[in-house]
Amino acid sequence: MVKIDLQEALKKYFGFSSFKGEQEDIIHNVLDGNNTFVIMPTGGGKSMCYQLPAMLSEGTAIVVSPLIALMKNQVDAMRSVSNSESVAHFLNSSLTKTESTRVKNDIRLGNTKLLYVAPESLTKPETILFLKEVKISFFAIDEAHCISEWGHDFRPEYRRLREIFEEITDVPIIALTATATPKVQNDIQKNLNMLDARVFKSSFNRDNLYYQILPKQDVEKQIIKYIRTQEGKSGIIYCLSRKKVEELAELLQVNGINALPYHAGLDSATRGKHQDMFLMEDVEVIVATIAFGMGIDKPDVRFVIHHDIPKSLESYYQETGRAGRDGGEGECISFYRYKDVEKLEKFLQGKPVAEQEIGRQLLNEIASYSETSVCRRKMILHYFGEEFDETNCNEMCDNCRTPKEKYEGSEYVLQLLQAIHSLKETQRSKHYCSFLSGIKTSDIKAYKHDELPLFGVGKLKNEHFWNAVIRQSVVAGLVHKDIETYGVLKLTDAGNAFIANPTSFMLIKERDYLVEDDDSTVITGNGGAAFDQVLYNQLLDLRKSISKQKGIPPFVIFQEPSLKDMCFQYPITIDELTNIQGVGNGKATRYGAPFVALISRYVEDNEIERPQDLVVKSVVNKSGLKVQLIQNIDRKLPLDDIGRAQGKTLDEVIDEIEAIVVSGTKVNINYYIDDILDQDTQDDIYEYFSEAETDDLKAAYDEFDGDYSEEELRLMWIKFMSEMAN
Fold first, then answer.
1. Would you say domain 410-504 falls under CATH 2.60.40.420?
2. What 8-state DSSP symbol labels residue 239?
3. Which phi and psi (to 5°) does residue 540 adopt?
4. What whole-number distance in Å separates Cα of residue 538 and Cα of residue 563?
5. DSSP string, 499-544
6. Residues of the chain with CATH 3.40.50.300
7. Residue, of 569 and 415, whose pLDDT is higher
8. pLDDT > 60? residue 614
9. Pairing of β 406-408 and β 506-508
10. CA distance 529 to 614
11. Bridge partners, residue 336, by sequence
12. DSSP single-letter state for residue 397
């Protein structure tokens, strides 16, 4: 009966012939006047749970929503399924007085079924007075996790919602969120005084999403390489800072990728324009802070990349959840290094102690997730209080696709559990890692834990190892992290049973991200190019023959690092040659033709697949600094003065000039050299470089028995290269 009516209403208002998941039961519960709590992953159809009841109820439903962009999106969607513009409105600071008056008149006349309002607007006395006058069907709180201090997007104004609701009228409440751990769920219900609410909790598993964590090295190059394989697909890249958003968006544009930035520092018109261009597919990639994406109804986002790891596992889940909402493919790639976690911990300093403790606990969870070798899907779902058999992951995370080595670890698990028992279940992970490793931290000495028999029982292993044992014991259900006490470890019944009767426990060997923080290391990935020694030898021979023909040293043509880079990238045009290390337009034009011809033949003869997706162009502002330096040299300013003006040492200025000259641009620093070296000395050094077999300055220094300083030799080498090579 009512069910048939609901089906008809769904078809009539929204054009769908059937409900998704538990939508129908949820809508019945709302229409029956009951408090309702909906926990449903992104893409599960949360908004329908209050939109349809609003259309079928007398009066106006008040929807509390955190973002103006989200409200506009939702209102536009509702108006598109109705004959009336008045069916849905929003009330926030973006409206003029005239527009606000029109909204209120539509509500008074009973034309408006949904009113979206920001919590800040709802707290205004004039808004409360107005809402007291009109018929309200129910209150809906979207993104309800904002209520909880333990949620990933806590907003203090959300904590006042219940008292405001009670001041306005007594009607049912529906709270909705896509992310809520058991702790956050309880916090929301207590704060809203709706512990009586019927809870509808869908599975958090998004089986179409692929999760991957990569070490944070050469990030920009890896991102560009990846996006070039995703031509025509929509994606979002998240960064923590506005500055990084701007830099990365510009870098993508320079490299031919259709991308735009989005962050709270842009004016609202620009933000709205960029959002609409993304929705309308005028742009493929949005680079954003977390301000972007909440409620954005774009079903075909195919990839979500985290340039920086988020501040919590909830944030990560919500942001990755914006991929593949239509059930199609969705790749979630995140870059991680422990330094970023330490940086985020520093940002917590100065905040209230409780907030610091919560922040550290959330960071600890995201670090554990990033570093684990356990099935990522299993770990996410465990965090949200859901059990999952990793065999059902279907290799949809990097750890299941390329499993790490396993080994018998019952001895280590037993040592951990006994340590937790010995310290009376009073400490957090970090303390147990130090305790088992035998490290006498100030806390361990203060508690006199170094005097206990088990202190240092696992000293043959380091703290990183013990952290991995803790993580895997938590996921296995032997240990429980007590959130109320900010992550103190407690033994579960299964943990106590393991102590009484130890059984086999296979530990997974984990990756140590602490030793992978050297940004100079290049990640080549599965298809990474190897150095081509055969081609290198051919290029050396070609360089030698050209140097004899032109009567110049071989290094004047191309230096060895440039030749080696050619053996990785295989440039076959003059334009591609300018992407090679140390090769600018001038040098490529002057000497490049025979080299690209040789490489082109070599590539064709050997059927080589070139890694051109690794070629990344630099952003223009660097060339701006280069132009400024050349202009200052043209004005014959002393090099040390140029350095002081830019906050650089003389050595750093010479480094930059050297790089400019090596890449093929003429730079005349004779005015500076003439001040420090007489003509005979200059001729002497110049003649040496003309006949030298190598550009090694140490060899030059030894040749002159130390008569000239390294700085003098470098300046003359720059003069020589500028005149001979360019």
1. no
2. -
3. -60, -45
4. 10
5. HHS----EEEPPP-GGG---TTPPP--TT-----HHHHHHHHHHHH
6. 2-201, 209-401
7. 415
8. no
9. antiparallel
10. 10
11. 215
12. B
The CA-based angle 658-662-666, given to 5 degrees, is 85
Alpha helices in 65-117 (DSSP H): 68-80, 97-108
How distant, in Å, are the alpha carbons of 9, 32, 479 from that of 2? 10, 11, 47
For residue 646, pLDDT over 80 is answered with: no
What tokens were used for 708? 């000239």
Tokens 């520092």, residue?
A: 265
List, by residue range, all CATH 1.10.150.80 domains of the chain: 533-614
Instruction: Name the pLDDT band for 526 (thresholds 50, 70, 90).
Output: very low
Q: CATH second-level architecture of 209-401?
A: 3-Layer(aba) Sandwich (3.40)
The owner of tokens 């070490």 is 215
- pLDDT band, very low/low/confident/very high, at 524 (cuts 50, 70, 90): very low
CATH T-level fold of 620-725: Arc Repressor Mutant, subunit A (1.10.10)
Instruction: Kindly tell me if the per-residue pLDDT of 377 is higher than 90.
Output: yes
Strand partners, 211: 332, 397
pTM to 2 decimal places? 0.62
Start-to-end Cα distance in the chain: 86
Cα–Cα dist 638/373, whole Å:
56
- Which amino acid is residue 671, in one-letter code? Y
- 2-201 under CATH 3.30.43.10, yes or no: no
Token code pair at residue 368: 């554990």
Question: Where is mean pLDDT largest: 80-84, 127-131, 359-363?
Answer: 127-131
